[in-house]
Design goal:
The complex is a heterodimer of chains A (265) and B (399). Chain A has one domain. Helix content of chain A is 77%, strand content 0%. Chain A is built from 13 helices and no strands. The longest helix of chain A is centred in the first third of the chain and has 28 residues. Chain B is of the alpha+beta class and 399 residues long. Chain B has two domains: 238 residues, 3-Layer(aba) Sandwich (Rossmann fold); 121 residues, abc- transporter (atp binding component) like domain (Coagulation Factor XIII, Chain A, domain 1, Distorted Sandwich). Helices cover 24% and strands 34% of the residues of chain B. A six-stranded mixed beta sheet of chain B has the order 5-6-7-3-8-9, with helices on both faces. In chain B, strands 10, 13, 16, 17, 20 and 21 form a six-stranded mixed beta sheet that branches. The radius of gyration of chain B is 27 Å and the shape is elongated. About 2% of the residues of chain B have low confidence. Classes of the chains: A mainly alpha (265), B alpha+beta (399). The interface between A and B is medium-sized, with 29 and 33 residues.
Chain lengths: 265, 399
């Protein structure tokens, strides 16, 4: 289905996103608190490993002077988590939508777009919590938030491209979802979330972090929220190119493959 | 540009499916298997063309695997043909499965909005029609705020159907779903369906119920193994289809599977003859002859033989008996053949069955009763009537 038909069905997109948000934590004791619990548990685990097992010093923000492993971790982990969960859930949404796809004609990309939209709302809530924590720690992040938002939108576009590609691929070969869990692990450790390129000082790792698809986004956000400095124009250009290429390729592949979903799923 | 634009134009549509012997469902197999993947091409639709005209109810008939569901899914835009195309020129709503988009955890209200959006309605349209949808479903307001997983299957289907039928499409594509809910709800559905038809809207209907094709459709198409066998007047199409279904199968002399009785006398053959030939179908107005054969295991004096003519759904229509006609069979100690002729058949098109019973003279003790000993189809003949089961031979006069 074309983008035009997607626009005509924006009511459907809105309702599907709402369904994502409403059903995720229905019938759960903690409700929305779950979306904060996962980052907090991860934070606990990695804090112990980082601070007590390997006895590392937290990176120092430049020029902010902030030195907190917890905040450094959350600033990187939350956007990465958005990316990772969005793609996993998108793959599941197309697979789980099989009965719908076989019975109703509708723009299939809405299954993916609604996941991204719902995850983006979750991301905003988590970000708000982190921003409050940063403010309490003395980092005046408020002036930087517009740029942060811009970077997150680019991240969402980038994630959409990857999600469209993998969700379409998974309709034909269902081990794409297993491969994704492995790839997601690789991306997590290659992204500077629990380590800092400057303190590690390995030039190869620094290049991997800086050019890696998620590393580039995370480093830009660390500069904005942790260091309180503007990322270079080159960095922003890099993010825009990543987002554009990913989206164009993902959308092309999805449009090409989605007419066959009803037969293949 | 004088040609009329039809709401649905099916233009040389061919659809093939691949039937994989050893389908690579994972990347690993795909990579490892290289180009050695083997599959058959299965032709579901073979160069099919027809048009659906504006305002008509158009039936699609065919046996299982004839390609009619594939045809419907292509019309609905779910599947895409390999060759040719289907052009749909009107706002279409396809009801292939009720409540396909229902989410069990969401409330009835939320599901109404989601499902209607899936069927292509804007939020404004849904809001405007919401009350009507709820009203039509007959569900209580309390229930609309509880998750649909707590609904009974009847409630579920009623809500789904109310949404589907209130979407107000110009073209409705239906797959065997008019028979939902209780009698009251079914009547509401039929009424709404007739309203829809009377408003000049177009319907494409797939069904196995030949009576509804006869009574509801204006035209029909017959698909057989993916090929178009005919398009035209529904009576002719259904007759052709029924004849092809029954002509080949030899169920004539086979006795029904369920029988009861003490067994001193047993039916050993029962078949229907039309013009002296064993047949499975005939037309209104034909002479029906039932040929029965009895075999005795011990001698019986003066048994009574009756045949019960019933509709497929089990409504008894008539039970001619040898006793009522003062026919005396005498002592039966071996084999005895008898026939009963039912001239100028009054039954209207449909499926019928005959039970055969042999009992003592007073019809108290049953020796043998064979259920569905004979089943047959009646096709349109003379007189021709659209509704009902029997023709009462009406003779009209107009002053």
């Amino acid at each position: 289905m074309s983008l035009r038909s997607a626009a005509a069905h924006r009511n459907l997109l809105y309702l599907l996103s709402l369904r994502e948000l409403r059903t995720r934590y229905k019938r759960s004791l903690l409700g929305w608190a779950w979306s904060l619990l996962n980052p907090l548990v991860q934070l606990g685990i990695f804090s112990v490993i980082f601070l007590y097992v390997f006895e590392q010093n937290p990176p120092v923000g430049d020029p902010s002077g902030l030195q907190s492993f917890a905040l450094y971790f959350l600033v990187g982990f939350i956007p990465f988590n958005f990316f990772s969960i969005s793609i996993g859930a998108s793959i599941g949404a197309v697979q789980g939508g099989a009965s719908l796809i076989k019975k109703v004609a509708f723009p299939h990309e809405h299954l993916v777009l609604s996941v991204i939209a719902a995850q983006f709302v979750t991301l905003m809530i988590e970000l708000a919590v982190v921003v409050v924590a940063l403010l309490i720690a003395g980092n005046m992040v408020l002036p930087w938030l517009p740029v942060v938002f811009l970077v997150l939108v680019l991240l969402a576009i980038f994630s959409t491209g990857v999600a469209l590609l993998l969700a379409a691929g998974n309709a034909f070969f269902n081990d794409v979802s297993y491969l994704w869990t492995i790839a997601s692990q690789l991306l997590f450790y290659s992204t500077p979330i629990i380590w800092n390129p400057e303190t590690v000082g390995n030039p190869v790792l620094t290049q991997v972090a800086s050019w890696g698809p998620t590393g580039a986004f995370v480093m830009a956000l660390q500069e904005l929220l942790y260091d309180l400095q503007m990322p270079s124009a080159l960095r922003l250009l890099q993010l825009a190119v990543y987002a554009g290429v990913s989206f164009a390729f993902g959308a092309w592949a999805f449009n090409k493959l989605s007419p066959r979903f009803a037969e293949e799923l | 540009m004088s040609t009329v634009q039809h709401p649905v134009e099916v233009d040389h549509v061919t659809k093939t499916f691949r039937r994989h012997h050893d389908r690579a469902t994972s990347l690993k197999q795909f990579v490892a298997g290289g180009r050695r993947r083997t599959y058959d091409e299965f032709v579901a639709l073979d160069d099919v063309s027809f048009n659906v005209r504006r305002g008509e109810v158009f039936g699609v008939v065919g046996h299982n695997g004839s390609g009619k569901s594939t045809m419907l899914k292509i019309m609905a835009g779910i599947l895409h043909p390999n060759k040719g195309e289907v052009r749909v020129h009107e706002r279409m709503s396809a009801l292939l499965e009720l409540g396909a988009g229902f989410h069990p955890e969401l409330s009835g209200r939320e599901n109404v909005f989601l499902n209607a959006a899936l069927l292509g309605m804007t939020r404004k349209e849904i809001t405007a029609r919401y009350d009507e949808i709820v009203d039509f479903s007959g569900l209580d307001d309390d229930f609309l705020d509880t998750p649909v997983k707590t609904y009974s299957s009847g409630m579920y289907v009623r809500l789904a159907f109310s949404i589907a039928i209130n979407v107000e499409p110009e073209l409705l594509i239906i797959d065997e779903i008019l028979a939902v809910g209780d009698i009251d709800f079914q009547r509401k559905c039929t009424e709404r369906f007739l309203e829809f038809r009377n408003a000049g809207r177009t319907t494409v209907l797939v069904t196995h119920d030949m009576n509804s094709v006869r009574t509801m459709c204006d035209r029909a198409v017959w698909l057989d193994h993916g090929k178009l066998r005919g398009t035209g007047e529904p009576g002719e199409i259904v007759d052709g289809y029924t004849e092809s279904m029954t002509g080949s199968t030899d169920r004539v002399a086979k006795l029904g599977s369920y029988r009861e009785g003490s067994g001193e006398l047993q039916f050993t053959a029962a078949r229907m003859l039309v013009d002296g030939e064993p047949r499975r179908s005939l037309r209104t107005g034909d002479d029906l002859v039932l040929e029965l054969e009895l075999t005795a295991t011990s001698p019986i004096d003066d048994p009574a033989v009756s045949v019960t003519v019933m509709t497929a759904s089990g409504l008894m229509l008539s039970e001619p008996c040898t006793r009522d006609a003062d026919i005396v069979l005498g002592r039966v100690d071996d084999r005895r053949a008898l026939t009963v002729r039912l001239p100028d058949l009054a039954l209207l098109p449909g499926e019928y069955q005959v039970h055969c019973t042999v009992s003592d003279a007073r019809r108290h003790h049953i020796f043998d009763r064979v259920h569905s000993a004979v089943t047959f189809d009646v096709m349109a003949g003379t007189p021709l009537e659209q509704f009902g089961t029997v023709s009462l031979r009406p003779q009209w006069t107009v002053e």
